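User: Hi! I'm working on a homework problem where we have to compare a predicted structure to a textbook description. Could you give me the structure for the chain below?
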Amino acid sequence: MLIISLSLFASLFYVLATGHVLSRLFHKEGPNQKLTIVLSTLAILSHMLLLVNSVFTSEGQDLSTVNVALLTCWVIVVSVTAVSLKLPATLLLPVVYGFAAILLTSSLFIPHHIVMQTINVDLGLVVHISLSLLAYCVLIIATLYAVQFFYIDNRLKHKDLAIMHSHLPPLMQVERQLYQLLTIGTALLTLALLSGFVFLDGMFAKEFIHKTVLSLAAWVVFAGVTFGHHQFGWRGKAVVFSIMVASGLVTLAYFGSRFIQEVILGKF
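Assistant: Happy to help. Predicted structure tokens:
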């Protein structure tokens, strides 16, 4: 009952925060920052309490795909909210808040095939998992910036006057932040992959090869786009599409097989 209450409470405040930001999206002064922070903070705290009660149980740690997804979502929400305090992120907030609300609500209906694990403190494994989580969160935020860049650029090309007087950030600022995040995320993904090859056995074993191959494919795209931008000035629709494809690949690598096994096939 506590899990259901926390999920609904967090979802409610994420929806309220989303609605407030969207209602002021094209207003010159933008959304009321204090109200946005209050609503999002209540949602984030409820989300955090939900994670604590879902992951840490009396029988052990529940590291099911749903809980890992909720944790990753929480890190992204906290990161984007923190960024919005100093940099314009008006277009990103309703996306991450809205997605968090959908994920929290969906988690109530997705079967939780609880995976109880006793976590052994293995420094190499901890380093690999931490780098992987950080890399994924940064790259997903970079992808959101890429979508934001494409949206603003498209509206400007169509001479949409509404966007000229909106609270959305300048196009060049979004582009600069996009490639900064992409560079950091690619570096973290590189370290995550290297740590996997150094500390873990069987990266190309049958049960893990799909994750390794998908992660390497995503790394090739991210690294290629990052290098191409810094060396040759690559930008535009093709770059945004490439970033989205790479994010899809790394998402499949991180969550795809576990979701199929735990939720669809019911194996755990």
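For your comparison, note the following. The longest strand covers residues 60-62. The mean pLDDT is 87. Good luck with the assignment!
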